[in-house]
Amino acid sequence: MTTSIYYIPIESSLGIAKHYFISSDGTFENSIGWGPHHVEHNG
Predict the structure, then answer these.
(1) Helix %, strand %, coil % for the chain, to 5?
(2) Considering the entire predicted model, what is its pTM?
């Protein structure tokens, strides 16, 4: 499985800050990222 690093802008920061995550398909629903509770797994 190939994975890549993606990001989405954080709306509450007016898009200045970005949330980076690792995903195999580019979606946030199937990802591993760093959040307020440390490492977060989605999917």
Answers:
(1) 5, 50, 40
(2) 0.63
d(CA 24, CA 30): 7
| Sheet containing 38-42, strands listed edge to edge, beginning at the edge strand earlier in sequence | 4-9, 18-23, 31-35, 38-42
Q: Which residue has 């949330």 as its token pair?
A: 19
| pLDDT average, residue stretch 32-43 | 75
Three-class DSSP category at 12? helix
pLDDT band, residue 17 (cuts 50/70/90): confident
Q: How many CA atoms lie within 13 A of 19 on its CB side?
A: 20
